[in-house]
Amino acid sequence: MTCSIELKNVSQSFGNNSSGSLGHKKSTSANMANKNKAATITLFKNLDLTINQGQSYAITGPSGAGKSSLLMLLSGLEKPTSGQGNFINDNQLSTLDTLRSDIGFIFQQFHLLPELTALHNVALPLKLRGDKHAISKAKHWLEKVGLSDRAGHKPSQLSGGEQQRVAIARALVFSPKFIFADEPTGNLDQHNAKEISDILFACCQENNAGLIIVTHSNAMARKAQHIYSLAGGELTKTPSIHVTEKQKVTKYLSTEEQQVASC
Q1: CA distance 135 to 47
Q2: What is each CA distance from 74 to 52, 55, 96, 108, 231, in whole angstroms?
Q3: In CA terms, which of 46, 104, 113, 143 is 20 to 30 Å from 9?
């Protein structure tokens, strides 16, 4: 049974502290209202979006448009200024707060713990859940992302591409229903970016995880089944040329890379 995330009539805004003082004591109520309005930055208004498990989504748009804020709202880690977010599972409706144990995150900066090896970074989410098989499952996932031989290395001993592979394994090791990725290839060169992108999409597809990516990369966005652009407070769906078969996703990879990308 698949589940979904739903945003309905959602708006997000925040105060602009750089606007300074609201004026002096003799300011009229109208002036105060105008200054309060000017001090508020609205990222988007009355936005509707549904995300389904097992589907892939890319959110593109200029910097500062609110893409990362939208990602936080979808994951239930932030609340909207107005509107409603729902998690729908087996036809049961609940708030997005209940989703937190079923999501994995991948960031541009990797966020691996420097004192832990690759193996123990991947095992950590399982250990926090009390899983007695955390280490064996972490080994399995490092093998899936092609890093079995780097399991004992700490992040400082890994390349950027290798660190992001560890981050992907860590995000998927506990079989989440949704993966949220915020500029996952932003710190990587073109070759590593393509490799990481292929691994991420293939692993999410194989594990029936919904994948929601914020990206400036057109190449990565084109891999998604659904592409949205967020700009000027408007979320617009754009045409997708998603490749639906895994063979097409990996056909340009070497044999070794296909084995890595096939989770």
Answers
A1: 42
A2: 11, 14, 8, 18, 17
A3: 104
